[in-house]
Amino acid sequence: MSIEANLAAIRRRIAAACDRAGRDPAEVEIIAVTKGHGPEKVREALDAGLTLCGESRVQEARVKIPRCPGHARWHLIGHLQTNKAREAVRLFEMVQSVDSRKVAEELNRWADRLSRHLAVLLEVNVAGEAQKFGFSPAELRTELAAVNDLPRLEIHGLMTLAPWSPEPERARPVFRRLRELKEECEQQLGAPLPQLSMGMSGDFEVAVEEGATWVRLGTALLGERHGPWKPPAADATG
Q1: Host domain of residue 177
Q2: Would you state the pLDDT for residue 234?
């Protein structure tokens, strides 16, 4: 199926999930996860009506983004090493994967040097999986004020990755807890945090039912990927 057909089917499923939850489908935006896909797939996604693209690796994004249409909007959704913070600030309009105070401080430092403000989400390891990054719920409450005080960062909400399972319902407690944490953070800050980025190809309908405003879709939207994307050798640049 084409990306356009995939997108139409996904939007129907989002609309049905919103109907079950009493939500407006306009509250939910799709992020095309372009990791492992080349500029031609990005172009096809944009032609189908999407605008947001998510990349997991700064190295891949650095080479890919200049080859894509200029109206694409780029979010970093994968773990950021602090030595890549400068490039992340330069390449992305938002970093969704701020998973520690150290990462936040480094992003703030480079945002200041580059004279810009950077929108961020705080990534929460709700399920406490040892192999995943993110603030624990307890760390989130402890570090929230300090991250919020960084003058070049603007916290827009929270992000999480649910544990993989063939049964989407198993993700529901994780998504519900993230929504509750968002509400707790709003009370702590005395300000709204409008975005909840949660749900991927296997569980996005459950995420929408639990309040997701952004769902991150790769395989369901763009098809299978085959490792990191690299430009053709004849087209490679630094």
Answers
A1: 3-224
A2: 54
* Run of H or E including 35: none
Q: What is d(CA 170, CA 77) in angstroms, rounded to the nearest whole number?
A: 22
Q: Please give the DSSP secondary-structure letter assigned to residue 213.
A: S
* CATH for 211: 3.20.20.10
Decide if 204 contacts 217 (C-beta within 8 A): yes
* Measured CA distances, 10 to 17, 39, 103, 198 (Å): 11, 22, 33, 15
For the chain, 238 residues long, the average pLDDT of each consecutive 10-residue run is: 96 98 98 96 97 97 97 98 98 98 98 98 96 96 98 98 96 98 98 98 98 98 89 63
CA–CA gap between residue 33 and residue 171 (Å, rounded): 19
Question: In this structure, is residue 238 part of a structural domain?
Answer: no
- Residue 74 in 3-state DSSP? strand
